[in-house]
Design goal:
By secondary structure, the chain is mostly helical. It contains 2 helices and no strands.
Length: 82
Amino acid sequence: MSAHDHFRHPRADLRRLGGIGIVSTFIALLIVVLIPGAGLTIGAPWWTWLVAPVIVWLVTALATWLLPGLFFKKKVQERRAA
């Protein structure tokens, strides 16, 4: 481990993860579009190739942010009731 590793900012890691997430979403959509009979088509206009991964990434990011709070709230309520 280098000295630089100790000074990395957590937000830099979050940005890196976000970038990896959107690139992997684009690659996954590309693979599915190339599979014959998969039923997914993304065509013209060209910007749909940019918007589709952003929409999937945004929904995933919101779910990652919101759903744990809902589950933790339910667990806390269950434990308090017990």
